[in-house]
Design brief:
single chain; 5-stranded antiparallel β-sheet; OB fold (Dihydrolipoamide Acetyltransferase, E2P); mainly beta
Length: about 90
């Protein structure tokens, strides 16, 4: 599980058939201090996260593939929660 911040939307005119109709967003992983921690990731967003919101990402590809109902989907990251507050 990763903590990340929504930094943008992904628009693709061509994509894998399992991702048609899915909302794809760009998420920047970050540490508890809010500083970036790694490269941005593309994630499926079934929860409707807003721009700049903190989210929990699952990197379990099986979960993402189950959401899109395609065991051969290239999906890996999926938002599993919208974070209200982080305390250390």
């Amino acid at each position: 599980m990763l903590l990340a911040r929504v930094v943008g939307n992904v628009v693709a005119t061509q994509k894998h058939k399992s991702l048609v109709g899915q909302r794809l967003i760009l998420c920047q992983p970050e540490g508890l201090d809010g500083k970036p921690a790694g490269a941005p990731l593309v994630a499926i967003d079934p929860l409707g996260a807003g721009m700049h919101q903190r989210v929990n990402l699952s990197s379990d590809g099986l979960t993402a593939r189950n959401i899109v109902n395609d065991p051969r989907s290239p999906a890996r990251y999926i938002i599993i929660g919208i974070v209200d507050e982080v305390t250390a």
